[in-house]
Amino acid sequence: MSILTICSVLAAVLYFGSGVAIIGSMKGRDAKASGLLRWPVYAALLLQAYALHGEMFKEGAVNFGFGYALSEMFFFAVIILLIETWIHRLHGQFGIVLIGAAIGTLSPLLFVGQAITSSIEWTTLFRWHLILAIAAYAFLMIAFVQAVLMAIMNRRLKAINVTKSSSTFLDSMPGLVVMERIFFRIVAVGFLCITLTLIVGAFATQEALGTYFSFDHKTVLTWVAWIFFGILLGGRRMAGWRAKTALNWFWAGFVVFVVAYFGYSFVQELIG
């Protein structure tokens, strides 16, 4: 077992343990998780960064694929939420993302990807395009967790047999109106990242192929997802969309955006 593999496994253990500890602390309206739980997350980020850098960047080439993209996405998501917890506090959503990050950190060990010649295809524009795309996936993954929690909370509010005496993980979350406000802010940032991804991607495509638009599945599906999220944000602003209507548009955009790269790449590497 290589040192890079050991670092990935240790990072996954730290992510998982921290996530479970945070979620376990979130019981009741005034529940709090210890700020000390940030320290194992810091350690996990450093270990994951070291392992990812070592596995991805080889001499003369860069290894990339489904597993690396998944790991990078969760790496960004953890950093984003970690910064947010310093502004507010540790919360259950962060714990859920940390458990997902534990799985994402190990994904490059299962899906090794393919080598990209760094001097030819790994251009500066391509690097920025990739960074923006991963950032978009990270923000929308956070929005996905937020959407799932909102859907559960909405269903819980409508349930007749909810007992006020029970204290659950959901009781530690902000109110549904606040959750919706945060959700749309995250989606808006994700939408901005997708927009920049498409713009920079167009210039990267022109640099590589001499055309600004390539009719491959990733580009087409990303544009479709961009339209869905644009309609969602427009509907929120102009028609006050919320709850089921807003979530339905989000699910549609999220599924298309995930399939644009992750779905296709997963099937391709699985079959290959």
The whole-angstrom Rg is 20 Å
Percent of residues in β-strands: under 5%
Number of strands: 3
Indicate the low-confidence ranges by residue numbers: none
So how many helices?
8
How does the major sheet shape up? 3 strands, antiparallel
Nearest-integer average pLDDT? 87
Overall, the morphology is: globular
Which structural class is indicated by helix and strand composition? Answer: mainly alpha
Distance between the termini: 24 Å
Q: What is the share of helical residues?
A: over 70%
Order of helices and strands: HHEEHHEHHHH
Oligomer: single chain
List keywords for this structure.
3 strands; 3-stranded antiparallel β-sheet; 272 residues
What does this entry look like structurally?
With 272 residues, this protein is mainly alpha-helical. It has helices at residues 3-25, 38-56, 66-87, 92-110, 124-158, 176-209, 217-239, 243-271; strands at 57-58, 61-64, 114-117. The protein has a 3-stranded antiparallel β-sheet with strand order 1-2-3. The mean pLDDT is 87.
Task: Outline the fold blueprint.
Blueprint: H1 3-25, H2 38-56, E1 57-58, E2 61-64, H3 66-87, H4 92-110, E3 114-117, H5 124-158, H6 176-209, H7 217-239, H8 243-271
Antiparallel strand pairs: 1-2, 2-3
Helix pairs in contact: 1-2, 1-4, 2-3, 3-4, 3-5, 3-8, 5-6, 5-8, 6-7, 7-8
Briefly characterize the structure.
With 272 residues, the chain is mainly alpha-helical.
